[in-house]
Write a structure and sequence with these properties.
Helix content is about 20%, strand content about 35%. By secondary structure, the chain is of the alpha+beta class.
Amino acid sequence: MRIHTLGLTLFVLGIVFGTHATSVPMGELRAQQNPPPVPAGDQPPITFKVEVNYVEIDASVTDQQGNFVRGLTKDDFEVLERGKPQSVSIVSLVDIPVEKFDPPLYKTKPVEPDVRSNSKEFNGRMFVLVLDDLNTSFTRTARVKLAAKEFIERYLGANDVAAIVQTGGAKATGQEFTSSRERLLRAVNNFMGQKERSATLGRIDEYYRSLGTGASGRPRDPNEEIRVYKARNTYTVLKNVADYMAGIRGRRKAVVFFSEGVDYDIYDPIANTYATDIRQYSQDAIAAATRANVSFYGVDPRGLSAFDDAAEIASIPNDPSLNLGLMALQRELQTSQDSLRVLSDETGGFAAVNSNDFAKGFERIIRDNSSYYVLGYYSDDSKRDGQFRPLTVRVKRPGLEVRARKGYNAAKGRPPAGTAAPAGIAASIALREALDSPVPVTGLGMRAFAAPMMGARPKASVLVVVELEGPAIKFKQDGPLFVNNVEVAILAMDEGGKVRDGAKDTAELKLRPDTHALVMKNGVRLTRRLELPPGNYQLRIGARESIGGLVGSVMYDLEVPDFSKTDLTMGGILLAAASAGRIPTANPDPDFKAILPGSPTAVREFPSGDQLTLAVDVYDNKVATPHKVEIRTSMTADDGGVVFSATDERRTEELKGVNGTYGHVTTIPLKGVAPGRYVLRVEAKSTVSNGGTAAREIELLVR
């Protein structure tokens, strides 16, 4: 099984887990490391699995007024491949709402969730935003950022996920699939165009440099090799993104391609040495997209200012045969925009060019990816010949129009072999597939949170808490005990897709009847520590119970601060609750035994009358000057009313002149707190000049 990450190329990572000491047993729950190896209708779930000869088609069906038509079944469709009818095995309606982000009433932005769960089936759109820095001028960097930010901020729904890739492939410029606007916008801010200067302008410069040297003929493009290299890389990135998304089934897959296009003329191989090569790279990208059922949507950030290169011409050569004037610039523009049109048209998308208003294009992209039918069948042609296979999709009902892709390119060569897990790692195939999925897998219900804290410098210690829902865990009876094994795996991947740490544990559940009843009602909790250097990560967390074979996974966006870099920093917020104490913990973290009344919990919904205990570490790195640090904890209702507030004043004398930690613990009674949504905020402020502030906040519900 393969784990994919996005970058200049989509490379394959094995599941690499770190080594840790054996977890601490607790009663009848035991966590163990590295166990022996373990051998048409409703809207379809997303799956991530490559199947040989399986063909999936997205079809939009409209009436004569252009309205989308619902209520069709498998019997209403006909699919022909090369004119031959195919046996359609699946026809499902995908009808995705656009869910709005819902910040508290007193805030303009939503609070970033500190807990991720798979309690709901993923019901959103999937986008990859490819920012083509290689073929975008530096002077238009701001326009690309504005356009991409507009798409993210105004058109992505709260139920959507998106990833960001730059064609230049720098490790720190991408973002894995996430629903976090903040992370997507941060990735966009890393964009910087690096397109070569216009070939026509370069030739004009060469012409004037060669005057008097006896040189004849049309001057060469001085940057041709670099231009070809960048064109090749851009098409390769698009191909690899499409290849990655080939394994995603059950959703339309869209690549929004922000680019000025490739301006190398691929239709004149006599005048352009590498035309045939670049044309082949373009066709390879299109073939991969049609094979994977991926649509490209080209967005030209130049808008109506696309012809502003003409302002750089100081003087046009007085030789019409050289063709080095405004017409040459116009042809470059046409060539670059045609490259966007071809990519888009051939893959079922469209190109937004020659417009300063991206709203209509973005709205259409959202419509295209919101309501459609998914048709699936197994082709009776198993040849891997790479040939184009035309498709025809019809609806038997009169008066309806179908829009679907016109065909696909068959796979070529031998099928790719899956990469086995490294020696000593016994994660099951099903669990590895769950970790591979770009969206949460919902079979085994789970929720998780991660809290970074200061560790052995320069790394931080990250506490990961995973809570599994009890009703989904199947048990078999072994005498008086109820038994099952649950394996939990965690991967921490940095911005470059590298696995920086990970773990795999197995909870051996051997429960007496009373404990079994408790687990079935409340679930079970596992904890794990990771050691990570400062940076941004995506945690991929998966679990599998062995008897029923149910699997679940979540993806968790994590920022690990550099706790030694700024004057005042804060670790992650830990919460314990009387109600959450009913969840048995397989391996409680001993560091919190004397601090919290129970294990930290991923629960964020509490009954009225419950009692919360909050713990957080504040790190002071400016102790040379004696001062105080005020730590304030507040809980604010949706309307802005403060229902709880407590202040803790600490002094540098406690640290005895050494940079250190203020451990802050406070109790929050929920007795008398009305049901509703609340924001729990902890803020630390130093009284010394420029001593800094630090804050964290989480959202919770009282029922």
